[in-house]
Structures are given as C-alpha cells and as structure tokens.
TrEMBL record, chain A:
Family: Belongs to the ABC transporter superfamily.
InterPro entries: AAA+_ATPase, ABC_transporter-like_ATP-bd, ABC_transporter-like_CS, ABC_transporter_ATP-binding, P-loop_NTPase
Organism encoding this protein: Nocardioides luteus
Keywords of this entry: Antibiotic resistance, ATP-binding, Nucleotide-binding, Transport
Transmembrane segments annotated in the record for this chain: none
Protein name: ABC transporter
Broad class of the protein's primary localization: membrane
Domain ABC transporter as annotated: residue spans: 2-232
SMART domains: AAA
Superkingdom of the organism of origin: Bacteria
Membrane topology: Peripheral membrane protein
Subcellular location: Cell membrane
PROSITE patterns: ABC_TRANSPORTER_1, ABC_TRANSPORTER_2
UniProtKB/TrEMBL annotation, chain B:
Keyword Transmembrane helix: yes
Name of the protein: Transport permease protein
Subcellular location(s) per record: Cell membrane; Membrane
Topology of the protein relative to the lipid bilayer: Multi-pass membrane protein
Annotated InterPro entries: ABC2_TM, ABC2_TM_bact-type, ABC_2_transport, Nod_factor_ABC_transporter
Keywords: Antibiotic resistance, Cell membrane, Membrane, Transmembrane, Transmembrane helix, Transport
Disulfide bond keyword on record: no
ABC transmembrane type-2 domain: residues covered: 40-273
Transmembrane portions of the chain: 41-64, 76-103, 124-151, 157-181, 193-212, 245-267
Protein family membership: Belongs to the ABC-2 integral membrane protein family.
PANTHER family (UniProt xref): NODULATION PROTEIN J
Organism: Nocardioides luteus
C-alpha cells in the first residue's frame, strides 16, 4: 500500500525526516511511535500528498504523490492532529459537504452519513453545532468525516492526544473495528499504550530516523527484558544509589524520580535490593512496555 | 446500537477531471454557508445600501444643484451618485468576503486544510470561493439596482442591465487582490491596514461621490490608478447611457488584468500556505 525508500524532508536547515524506509502492507495497523518532533507528522503529511518529499522515493497505492496526488487522496482518509471541522456548520453538514468533495452523488453521501454517524455514535447529535461537541465527539466526527470516501488507508495523526481516558477508549474501540473490517490504518502516536493496543507493526522514530521496527511484542522482546522493577527513593538519591544496585539487573535506567531495573524476574530484584539494606519509598514490578523500548533505544522518555 | 463499518463500495471517490468539475464539488459547501449566513447578509446587502441612497443620494443630494456637465452628464446628483454607490458596494462585498472569512478558513478553523486533504486542489478552492463572491454580488447589486430604479434614477434599460453584469467584473477586480492579501499576511491585525488605507480612501476618492476632476490634476491622476474609479466610471457610463467605447475598453482591460494576475498569484499563495 505504501512504500518509502530513503525518504527525506527538510525545512530550510532543519531535517525533519532523515532518510526512512517503510513498507506498509494491506490490512495492517501500522504505527509511528516517537516523541514530539521525531518526524512522524512530516512523514504523514508526505504520505497524504500535502508535503513534497525533499529526497528519496515514496509510493502510495503504487503511485507517486508528486504526480498523482489527487488520485491518491481520493482513496485516503485523513484524520489530522488538529481538528479542521467547520465549527459553524452542524455535524451532518460537515460530513455532507466533505463527501461531495470526493465526487460522490448526493444520495450516496446521505446514505453514508447515516451509517457513519451510527458508527461513531453521533446519530443523536446530527443537528448539533460542532462548537457544542466535547473533544471526544469532535474527534469521532473527524474520524467519521475521514471515512466518508470509504478509504483504503486511514491516516490518523495523534488520534487521541488531548482526550480523557474514557474518550480515548471509545476511539480505540472504533479504530479496532475498522481494522477488523480490513481498513489499513496508519497512525502516529506518542502514547505507548495506544501503539500497543492498536498496532500490528510499528516503527520507533527519533530525530527524523527509524530506530527500530517490528511488532509491539517483538520490539519489547528484542529491546527489553520481560519485567521491570521500579524503585523510588528520596529526591536526588537515585543517581548515587544506582551504582549500588546495577549488578542486580541486566540493565538499569536512572530517571529523575525513580530507578528502572530490567530483569526477567522483577520480584527477585526487589528482594535482592532489600537484602542489601536499601529501603525504597515505593516499589513496583511490571511488564516491559514500548516506553522501555524507547528509553533503551534513545535514552529518553516518550512524553516529557 | 453501532453497526460495523462496511467497506463495500457502490460508487468510487475520484480525482476531479478538471478545474470546473473540481470547483463544482464545492457548490454544496457554499450553499450550506449561504443557508447559514443569509439573514445577516440581508441587512448588509440590501438594507445598508438603501440607507446610503436615502441619506446621501436623496436627502443630501437634494441640496446639490449642479450643471449636468460637471456631473458626467447626470441630470441629478442622485443619478450621478447611484452608479458610484453600486460599484462601491461591489467592492465592499469583496472586502467583507475575502478578509476575515479567509483568515478563518486558513488559520482559525483551518477548513482549507480539510479541503486540501480531499482530492481538491488550491485552484478548485479559489475558483469556487471567487465564484461564490461574484454570484453573491450579482444578487446584491441586482436588488440594489432595482431599488434605485424605483427612485426613478435610470432612463436606459439596457445600460442598467449591462451595469449589473459589469458588477461581476468589478467585484472580481477586488476579490482576487484582497484574497491574495489575506493569504499573504500572518495575522488579522493587518486587516486594519487594508480597511483604513485601502477600502475607505478608495470609497471616498474614486469618483463615487464627486467627479475626480474636483481633486485637482495631480490627485486626479492618482485616483485614475484606483481600480474602483475604473469600476465607478464604467458603471456610470452605462447607467447614464453615455458610453465612450475607447475609455470603456480601457476600464475593462484594467479590471480584467488586475483580477487575472491576482487570481493566479492567490492560487500560488494558497498552495504555498497549505502544501509545505
């Protein structure tokens, strides 16, 4: 569906994307995980044909965005990071006028709107002004709008950023259904839980480059241990205490507020820490996540 | 109960085959906007010009007794000022439609970005929006001319009809330059500039209310460079039925060139803002 070879994007002196290779197969939920400024959105904009690549090769549906942008866009659904809804129109009209941009007959657009409002659970808000919707509802409306042309690829740039946990789960549920219906999903996120929940395959991006590629579980297996023991000591003590416990784990990360000890058996690590006469204020054993993968690969956390 | 998403595709979304077919896809958008804004538009489009005609043309104009030779051949001041007000009204619509609404679509609501994510291109967006302003102007000026006719201002039917059609060109000569301006600025603060240094002096000193000959020879030359003067003078020639073909052709060429050059530049500027 999408293939990129050595894809680059620069803005003046700033290199947003520094040569990435990506290949997305049909029906896959493909994620770009990385912190703000990693080059995820720039990559999405190039795929959506609204940002000409500076270098490298990009093909979407086998076509070149520079040549066949409108043809590609007819088959893409785009859910941008910032809402671009017409806040003065009602929910129904937002979908209606958008469907017409794709050259769909009026009657068919109307049929699809019924279906999509139902799908994103906004049927009873059809006549509501966009301004009166909650953040989660606006996002669902944007998703509905991006589906009006029944796209083969749905591009979602940070689909749940800024939403409360409940609203996020509603979105995830809808996206999961789309995935089951065979729609190829392409999404960017800086939330590791979102990437774990939705993505079959993902790339980790940092500073314009891809630093890892695989399935969520595969990445965790390859770049982290099964479990993580988190130790919380007093403020400012973590740096100095790290040396006393680092031999207890395969790997250690020092964060400002805690120590992360990577091991396949977290409980034994905690016991061993206590055995050395150390008494952390709080301890936690958890499974490794993509956050740990990112920390290991870049030395930084995803969300600052 | 929510149903699942059905990917079966009865009709296929397509890329538009040409400039006009793409712009036609936006007809429903502009109709929806019209349906939302028509109540407010009635006041600004129909009531306000009527008040101007009454106050300046009839009541103030009643004090003016001038030789028709000094009023471009108009027998009354009302007959002189009426075509000027029609052309100035066309200009006002262009300023109203192409300043804050454009900034809203570009910066506040970012609607242009949603349009460009569909198969539509900047050229389609500009054509549809410009066509909307032209149609809106023809409707407004049509009513305006009918009201003026009721005041007994006109003697010529064909001249008035031609003046009405001409307003499509007059509004174009302001629509595309103001659109270009609005797409080129960063923030809405700059609109104060274009209103105070553009729209208001143009309205006052382009022959709308008095012949530009009254300005003196230097200022008269400056006024002749104003696009509104070309619009006003041509509209007046038509409603007074005193057409000078050579001068009229010059007016038309000026307005067409201004509109066309700024149209082309506006498409480029919109593409520059949306695609980067």
């Amino acid at each position: 569906m999408i293939s990129a070879r050595g894809l680059r994007k620069t803005f003046g002196d700033f290199e947003a994307v520094r040569g990435i290779d990506v290949s997305v197969r049909p029906g896959v939920a493909f994620g770009f995980l990385g912190p703000n400024g990693a080059g995820k959105s720039s990559t999405m904009r190039m795929i959506c044909c609204v940002s000409p690549p500076t270098g490298g090769e990009l093909r979407v549906f086998g076509m070149d965005p520079a040549q066949d942008g409108p043809k590609i866009k007819a088959r893409l659904g785009v859910c941008p990071q910032e809402d671009t809804l017409d806040v003065e129109l009602n929910v129904y009209d937002n979908l209606y006028v958008y469907g017409r941009y794709f050259g769909l007959p009026r009657a068919e657009v109307k049929g699809r709107i019924e279906e999509l409002l139902d799908f994103v659970q906004l049927t009873d808000k059809a006549k509501a002004k966009v301004d009166d919707l909650s953040g989660g509802m606006k996002r669902r409306l944007t998703i509905a709008r991006s589906l009006i042309n029944r796209p083969e690829i749905l591009v979602l740039d940070e689909p749940t950023t800024g939403l409360d946990p409940q609203a996020r789960h509603v979105i995830w549920d809808r996206l999961f259904r789309l995935k089951q219906a065979g729609v190829t999903l392409l999404l960017t996120t800086h939330y590791m839980d979102e990437a774990e929940q939705l993505c079959d395959e993902l790339v980790v991006m940092d500073q314009g480059r891809i630093v890892a590629h695989g399935t969520p579980l595969g990445l965790i297996r390859d770049h982290s241990t099964r479990e993580v023991a988190e130790l919380r000591f007093g403020v400012g003590e973590h740096e100095s205490l790290a040396a006393k416990v680092e031999d207890l784990a395969e790997r250690i990360e020092v964060l400002p507020d805690r120590l992360l000890l990577y091991s396949d058996d977290g409980e034994s690590v905690i016991e061993a820490v206590h055995g050395r006469g150390l008494t952390p204020a709080a301890t936690l054993v958890r499974r490794s996540s993509l956050e740990d993968v990112f920390l290991h690969l870049t030395g930084r956390t995803l969300v600052d | 109960m929510a149903t699942d998403y059905a990917p079966a595709t009865p009709s296929t979304p397509t890329a538009p085959s040409g400039l006009v077919s793409g712009a036609l896809r936006m007809v429903d958008y502009w109709l929806t906007v019209a349906a939302r804004t028509w109540k407010g538009a009635v006041v600004t489009t129909f009531v306000t010009p009527f008040l101007y005609v009454l106050a300046l043309g009839v009541l103030l104009g009643g004090f003016i007794e001038a030789d028709p030779a000094t009023l471009d051949g108009a027998t009354t001041y009302l007959a002189f000022v009426a075509p000027g007000m029609v052309a100035a009204h066309s200009m006002n619509i262009a300023f109203a439609e192409m300043t804050y609404p454009v900034m809203g679509m570009l910066k506040w609501q970012r609607i242009y970005y949603s349009m460009i994510a569909s198969p539509l291109a900047p050229s389609h967006i500009v054509l549809a929006q410009v066509a909307w302003v032209v149609l809106r102007t023809l409707l407004a000026c049509g009513v305006f001319l009918l009201v003026l006719a009721a005041f007994g201002v006109f003697d010529t039917f064909w001249g008035v009809l031609a003046a009405w059609v001409l307003q499509g060109l007059v509004v174009l000569a302001f629509t595309t330059p103001v659109l270009l301006f609005s797409l080129s600025i960063r923030g809405e603060e700059s609109f104060a500039l274009i209103f105070r240094l553009g729209m208001i002096p143009l309205t006052l000193f382009s022959g709308t209310f008095f012949p530009i000959g009254n300005l003196g020879s230097v200022l008269e030359k400056i006024a002749m460079a104003s696009p509104l003067w070309h619009g006003v003078d041509l509209t007046r020639m038509l409603t007074l039925g005193r057409l000078d073909w050579g001068v009229a052709a010059l007016h038309v060429v000026y307005l067409v060139v201004l509109a066309a050059v700024c149209w082309w530049l506006a498409i480029r500027k919109l593409a520059e803002r949306l695609v980067s």
